[in-house]
Amino acid sequence: MKNQPALYLEADCVSPDAFAGKTAAQIAELCVYEGNVTSTLGKYFDVTGSAGTTAADTKIVVKGDVKKVKYLGMKMSAGEMVIEGNADMYVGAWMTGGKILAKGSVDAFAATAMKGGELIIEGNAGNYLGAAYRGDWRGMSGGKISVKGNAGSDIGMYMLGGEIIINGNVDVHVATHAEGGKVVIKGDAKSKVGGQMVEGDIYIFGSIDIMMPGFKPAGEVELEVEGTKGKFAHFIGDMGERHKKKKGQVIYANLYKKI
Amino acid sequence: MTKIVTDVICPFCGTLCDDLEVAVTDDGKKITEVYNACVIGTEKFLHSQASDRVTRPRLMQADGSYKEISYTEAAEYTAQMMAKAKKPLMYGWSSTNCEAQSMGHEIAEMAKACVDNTAAVCHGTTLIAVQDIGLPTCTLGEVKNRADRIVFWGCNPAHAHPRHMSRYSIFPRGFFTGKGHKNRKLVVVDPRPTDTAKMADIHLQVTQGQDYELLNAFRVALKGEWLPDVVAGIPKEKIYEAADILKSGRFGIIFFGMGVTQSLGKNHNIDEAIAVTKDLNDYTKFSIMPMRGHYNVTGSGEVMAWQFGYPYSVDLTRGFARYNPGDTSSIDLLSRGDVDAMFTIGSDPGAHFPFKCVKKISELPSVCIDPHLTPTSGVSKLHVPVAFNGVEAGGSCYRMDNVPIDCRKVVEPPEGMITDEQFLIMVRDRLKKIKGVA
Amino acid sequence: MSEYVIKNGHVFDPVQGIKGDKADVAIKDGKIVEKAGSGAKVIDAKGMTVMAGAVEIHAHIAGPKVNLGRIYRPEDKLFTCTPTKGMERMGSGNSIPSTFKTGYEYAKMGYTTCMEAAMPPMFSRHVHEEIRDTPIIDEGAFPVFGNNWFVMEYLKNYEVENTAAYIAWMLRATKGYAVKVVNPGGTEAWAWGLNCLTVNDPVPYFDITPAEIVKGLIEANEYLGLPHSMHIHPNNLGNPGCYETTLDTLKLAEGMKANNKFGRESVMHLTHTQFHSYGGTNWGDFESKAKEVTDYVNKNKNITIDTGNVTLDETTTMTADGPFEHHLTGLNHLKWANVDVELETAAGVVPYIYSPNISVCAIQWAIGLEIPLMMKDPMRCYITTDHPNAGPFTRYPRIFKWLMSTKAREEQINAFKHRDKVLAQTSIGSLDREISLYELVQMTRAGPAKSLGLGNMCGGLKPGMDADVAIYNFNPEKPVANPDDIEKAFTRCAFTFKSGVEVVRNGEIVSTGHKRTLWVNAKVKDNPQVVRDINEKFLKYYSMTQANYESLGHHFVPNPFAIEVDAT
């Protein structure tokens, strides 16, 4: 990054798919947007190196202060991206494959409706990590998100599949409306965990300040989760929500809280 | 001598009472009395008659004082501001008519701006919930004619929508509800013992911030499943009891407001309340309705939706519409510094937005269209007073249940004042010339 | 005003019986004229097909439930919005387009007159605001009557004249076009969470049956002599076995004669017939009864129908059949919106995905095509998708392709996951009829115009008619190499004229014209009883005043076109 935008920079072109097969000069000509002004990537970034012939063999390293850059890695399907600083919103939104390593923190809406691939965040993640787009009942359906730090609220909303692993703590609303998928929180949760869940699994190692009344105690189990062995209190729910039947058995969502 | 204008629509709150009668002097210039309105509505009409009204646009000078300018000069300033900005925000729209909103949208599209209305700080979360789960609702006449179970959740109509209970929800004797309030049961959910709560058959004093949990418990209770002893400060026996009361009615309705839309949970609270309503439809007939605040915030949402596709927080900066509250919503745009010009109309963000956002408005090129002197006009560079919509100008408005009503012009505006629609037409025409558009 | 002459095109006009002859079409002052003047601008339509602008008889394109659909489906617009371009405002929405996009897309496909299928009368101002903001196309809207308290109370006592007076009042108050009936009686029952699934189920409290409501409204419609017939969405929509309710409903028209000065010969229009032609008893043995329904309509010539074709897309269902939508959300668990309207009607909205991998959806697709292929008179069968219920209207060219090419149909059938079941439960595999271009024009222009009572005004190219003309890059003399060429040709007009104004050129909008709102002004004898009943209900039961209900000022309907009916 060489020039900061006065407002924010929308750089959805920064993805292996958009860079593949292009020279540095061509990449610098790709469109970026600051409000209603269309500009080129080269005006804000020094572009060096060369892309692979396909997305899969393209690796992008984003250097500098990109805390005002949005949409890095949006819709990527293959290849690699490393973001060295903190990034703004929509990192890896709608990605279907490939790998993003965010060495800093990311703002809201990262990995919206993720279908595949891997997103690693070494700092913190903002709100709506791995959530569905507004109004869509088809949220994250595949892939893996790992956050070393904390995450915000509304993670995994309308989740259908895939994994979200948070090392630190989370804010309110975890896996709301989820119909599949796996969420692991190694730190503490606050409240509204698993609200309106139809199916899926949540594992919490730390504390939950307030439990949803819709989660009913269902005994204790010994589990190994993400390399940690232990005893977990098992809850099934959300008892206020609809649930499917498989072979005559009702399938609930599971909440496991480490004892 | 006076004449009485009948069937007047009150342009204050989402109740949109349309049975007002206003006495006006024969020359059509002065309002003398207002009948049937609540105290707020009456004041809306009468205060427009104040002798110290600001009647001309005022532009802030370098020393912070304001100088009077003409509407033409004001339109020039506004059009220039919109043309130069990279990401202007056109906010408010809730206290003006649909015709003005539509004209504003033309400007926003031409200038590639963001457009947003007061739902951003109010029932925007309701709209997000509706987008996630739907909305079983009805018109207010259905409540009047059929409802025997009323829930006010996180709202206080006794103060905020004063005639709501007498016109629609508690007292009227409708077609199937000849006994009025005597055959209706009222449940109020509110952490506070409000004046509305005092009228309730059951008042659930929910722990603040735990409405989502209590609503979840209602859904569990409806299914007859296990509940912990206490949820959100309410003992489970009371929850089962309240759920039974709702189930046992013939037609129920949940009205809700800021108590749930803007407290912890926000859209999720509404989402779960809508889910409760859906579940209740397995046993009886139930609907849910947001208590919209401004008299035409609903209209702004409708016009924005049929023209652009989304009901609020719309970003037109790329030449086509995008929507994602949290990114495209006014509070976020202002607090993150993602806006470089502010256009406010028919609302008062200066009074309602977080301080950080108001400070931002004061730093930006800014225009405020408002008949009043407000905290917003106080921090805006240009203040353009206009005729009071619904009093001095008519136009289309939408009630809280989305019913469209055409407001009436009751009295002439002060000499030389124009309506906001007329001002917006001037701005649009000037912007067209600046941009070289045919 | 401009003059044009369209030369060398292959003209198809059922009104004049022209079946593809090369002929000139002349336009002057907004009308088709015999001959062009010397100053007329020449449009060279060599190798192209020329026909009247199409007439959409039933779509949900303007009003509160349409907008509720827009509001609650941001995902319907994600990544697919179109930018402002020239004189085109920005567009959005796949299954529920914005009003601007609606007008542009219809005009680009050669549609020039469209009817909003269901207007809840209390919301008429909203419907007209959206109509006003829909560019180019003439529009009208049908107020709904089948669950209206006044109608049920009058018809319980067989008071046809009072019903007629009320209808006349309503058409004037809402600037409505026709008598629309949706799930008669059932939607009032729905206000209590109930329904009427047969024509004989009595409505709670009002104690009148759907059969009595329908018969009474047909009689009132003919008493008034309105341009269009009663237009009905029967009870029991969408359920396996519903074809029996459909036949019971159709039988209500037996013996009824059309009475009007507009050339209309039908007394009943059955809409989105596909949804009403189901056999079987559950989703497992679900089968087509298109033959049974079309057999009846073929024999009974006072009935017109439209198809309601399934297009195999993700779309949004929306209808005044409130209980049906509640039932649908119970099946697919997708977000459900519902609005009950006092004294009048209701509406429901639920997204739906017609997947080619689901046998029920594939059978629905087949039924939608069986119906026009089995209907003998193309002047009585019109192509629709009940937009957006069975699919977006932008898919009409694809439906034309399926109707005109057995090869295209076979390709689709072979792509179904449950191909064998589709062939077993329907007759689609055995139908080798290919709709001709002339028949297509009857089904999309002359036929619907005639049914709407607009046969003298639009749907044809006879001198004196409105100059609504669509010219397609389709040469009827060349054999069709690839059926997809049909779809491509009908997706974008070479030229569209609306009321003599060139609005589309090479598939792009070049003018937005001066669209009109069509409505019917029916005069009846003074009826103090009905006037008093209306006053009283407003005083006691409506939540707004009568004066405000009747308020429909010029700013809502800036260019009205009233069709006068004298029923005194």
Question: Topology, please?
Answer:
The complex is a heterotrimer of chains A (259), B (438) and C (568).
Chain A: E1 9-10, H1 16-19, H2 24-28, E2 31-34, E3 37-40, H3 41-44, E4 59-62, E5 69-70, E6 80-83, E7 99-102, E8 118-121, E9 144-147, E10 163-166, E11 179-185, E12 189-191, E13 199-204, E14 208-210, E15 216-225, E16 228-237, E17 244-246, E18 249-251, E19 253-258
Parallel strand pairs in A: 1-5, 4-6, 6-7, 7-8, 8-9, 9-10, 10-11, 11-13, 12-14, 13-19
Antiparallel strand pairs in A: 2-3, 15-16, 16-19, 17-18
Chain B: E1 2-8, E2 20-25, E3 31-35, H1 39-47, E4 58-60, E5 66-68, H2 71-84, E6 88-92, H3 98-111, E7 114-117, H4 124-133, E8 134-138, H5 140-146, E9 149-153, H6 157-160, H7 164-169, E10 185-189, E11 202-204, H8 211-222, E12 230-231, E13 234-235, H9 236-247, E14 251-256, H10 258-261, H11 267-280, E15 285-290, H12 297-308, E16 314-315, E17 322-323, H13 330-335, E18 341-345, H14 349-352, H15 355-363, E19 366-369, H16 375-379, E20 382-384, E21 395-398, E22 404-407, H17 420-435
Parallel strand pairs in B: 6-7, 6-18, 9-10, 9-14, 10-11, 14-15, 18-19, 19-20
Antiparallel strand pairs in B: 1-2, 2-3, 4-5, 4-20, 7-16, 12-13, 16-17, 21-22
Helix pairs in contact in B: 2-17, 3-12, 3-17, 4-11, 8-9, 8-11
Chain C: E1 3-13, E2 18-28, E3 31-33, E4 41-44, E5 49-52, E6 54-59, H1 64-72, H2 99-108, E7 111-119, H3 124-132, E8 138-143, H4 149-156, H5 160-174, E9 180-182, H6 186-190, H7 210-224, E10 230-233, H8 243-251, E11 268-270, E12 278-279, E13 287-288, H9 290-299, E14 303-306, E15 314-319, H10 322-332, E16 336-341, E17 345-353, H11 359-374, E18 381-382, H12 396-404, H13 406-415, H14 419-425, H15 437-451, E19 469-472, H16 484-491, E20 495-498, E21 501-505, E22 508-509, E23 517-523, H17 528-540, H18 546-549, E24 560-566
Parallel strand pairs in C: 1-4, 1-5, 6-7, 7-8, 9-10, 10-11, 11-14, 14-18, 23-24
Antiparallel strand pairs in C: 1-2, 2-3, 5-19, 12-13, 15-17, 16-17, 19-20, 20-21, 21-22
Helix pairs in contact in C: 4-5, 4-7, 5-7, 5-17, 8-9, 9-11, 11-14, 12-13, 12-16
